[in-house]
Amino acid sequence: MNGRPNSWHSTTSRLILIYGSLFVVWGAVLVGVIQWETTRYLNTVIDQMLQQRMHYIASTEPSRLATTVDAAAAIDPHGIMSVGLFDKDHQPVAGNIDHLPASLLRDGQVHLLRHGLPRPDRDAERVRARGLATTLPNGDILVIAKDISTIDGIGAIIRRALLWGLSLTIIPGLLGGFLLRRGPEKRIRELQAATDPIRQGDLSKRLPVSRRGDELDQLAGIVNTMLGEIERLMNEVKGVCDNIAHDLRTPLTRLRARLYRTQQQLDGEPEAALVESCIVDIDEVLTRFRALLRVSELEDRHRAACFDEVDVGQVLRQVHEFYAPVAEDRGQAFELDIQPLTPVRADAHLLFEALANLVGNAIKFTPSGGKVSLRASMDKRGPRVDVIDSGPGIPADERDAVTRRFYRGDNSRTTGGSGLGLSIVSAIVRLHGYALDIGDTGSSGARLTLYCYTLGPDDKVGTCLSRSVPEVTPMTV
Q1: CA nearest neighbour of 337 among 299, 368, 377
Q2: Cβ–Cβ contacts within 10 Å for residue 241, how many?
Q3: How many other C-beta atoms can be found within 10 angstroms of the C-beta atom of residue 353?
Q4: The pLDDT value given to residue 158
Q5: Rounded mean pLDDT of 276-296?
Q6: CA distance 149 to 80
Q7: Residue 81 DSSP SS3
Q8: Mean pLDDT, rounded, for 154-168
Q9: Helix (H) and strand (E) counts for the chain?
Q10: Which H or E run includes 64?
């Protein structure tokens, strides 16, 4: 399970980004339409003004035309409305336009001046303008133009208004989205925290449900209903298995006792060997029943209330002392390497049981002349114990399954055992909230690492991580 949810992957963040993007796009489109309509309207008004001024000046008597043009130019010293009179040779006669615009057609229609016109009040800076020119009956050319920088200014105002509108909308929107996102994020973290014990096997826990009745509460309610049904079914299956194991132990024990008495009576007879074989098979069945009941006992989390400070190093020394003669009899080197460790809260007997099973399995599957190493060191958050052997190892595709009850891999089918050893280890690890990592040594052999602390969601260890591991009884070879 992931750790803290990514805020930018939340539904609220996605909605904010989507609606924000749509607002920006449609806001830009709206402002573009407004600016286009405004520009078109103002250009129409300017064109009408120019045509009216052209009609007025052109209707003046030819003898007074130059005076009228100069008077019109004098009225507008800033050159906002420019007027000029040119002779047949394009030489200026009157007005404030010093030369005839070459790109302006003399068809009596208003056109945009490509190169603009100079403004006297702006150090001859050229500004955008619209103008029209017409040829008078005497051959003179009359030109009237008007500065349209005002339209550009209005467009700039509209664009600034868009920027202000976006900023005044997006910033509060982002702030509001951040505040709105905090609530669901907090709920998600609460749901995630509630799922941790469920993920570790405690099906009695339920997801928190608030009084809001929103989508998260509806989902939590559905999951709680599902968990309740799963818990009921699991308890039924577990109860049946435990009852079978418990109820069959008594008749099997009686049967074993009777066979043992029969074996004593048949001492020296050929049938005694057959009876001995039957006793061995019954002992194997009883061992499996005891292991099943042991797993069920360890899955009862009430035992965690009796945890105390435990010296892991001392437990490892006891395990080494317990298995050293077994390894010696098998011709194996049994190495113990313990660095300074901090105490942990645990059940010392269960921790011994788990480590003893790991070491017992390592010795069991390591051939004669091989090596088993029991190492302990301080990791970033607590003690770490590695059990390393030079046996055949555990294939990568079986590492998820070896902690299941009765599972026996290809390498263990020819050896004795019930397939419950690592299930017991798993139950103990789950009870303590520890983690078991199953890997390899890089060449041959297996490496089983017990982390005596709860791993974080971002911790990457090995190839297979079992956060809930069962218990083990020391296994004899």
Answers
A1: 377
A2: 16
A3: 23
A4: 83
A5: 71
A6: 9
A7: strand
A8: 81
A9: 8, 13
A10: none
Cα separation, 452 vs 237, in Å, equals 31
Strand order of the sheet with strand 383-389?
Answer: 333-338, 371-378, 383-389, 446-451, 435-440, 465-466
Q: Which of 88-102, 272-286, 408-422 has the highest average model confidence (pLDDT)?
A: 88-102
CA dist list (Å): 347 to 305, 309, 350, 353: 10, 8, 5, 10
pLDDT band at 1 (very low <50, low <70, confident <90, very high): very low
CA 49 vs. chain centroid, Å, equals 64
Say if CB 213 and CB 260 are below 8 A apart.
no
Q: What is the pLDDT of residue 205?
A: 82
Q: How far apart, in whole angstroms, are the C-alpha atoms of residue 244 and residue 126?
A: 102
Taking only the tens place, the pLDDT of each residue in 63-92 is: 888 888 888 888 776 667 888 899 888 888
Residue 3 CA to residue 193 CA, distance in Å, equals 10
Residues 6+ apart with CB under 8 A from 427: 295, 298, 299, 468, 469, 470, 471
Q: Tokens 């008749």 label which residue?
A: 251
- Digit-coded pLDDT (tens) for 201-225: 677 788 888 887 777 788 888 888 8
Confirm if 135 and 100 have CB atoms less than 8 A apart. no
Give CA–CA dist 205/199, Å, rounded: 10
Domains, the chain, ranges and CATH? Answer: 1-198 (3.30.450), 215-298 (1.10.287), 305-466 (3.30.565.10)
- Altogether, the residues listed in the chain come to a count of 477
Instruction: Tell me the pLDDT tens digit for each residue of 329-383.
Output: 999 999 999 898 888 888 888 888 889 888 988 888 888 888 999 999 988 788 9
User: What is the chain's Cα-based Rg?
Assistant: 46
Q: CA 250 → CA 166, 244, 245, distances in Å?
A: 81, 11, 9
Q: Which long-range contacts (CB under 8 A, 24 or more apart) does 91-100 make?
A: 93/66, 93/69, 93/140, 94/65, 94/66, 94/67, 94/69, 94/70, 95/69, 95/70, 95/143, 96/120, 97/143, 97/145, 100/133, 100/141, 100/143
- Class of residue 16 by CB neighbours under 10 A (exposed 0-12, middle 13-18, buried 19+): buried
What is the tens place of the pLDDT at every residue in 302-326? 555 567 888 989 999 999 999 899 9
DSSP state of 141: E
Tokens describing residue 307: 């945890």
The mean pLDDT value of the chain amounts to 77
Both tokens assigned to 47? 């064109």
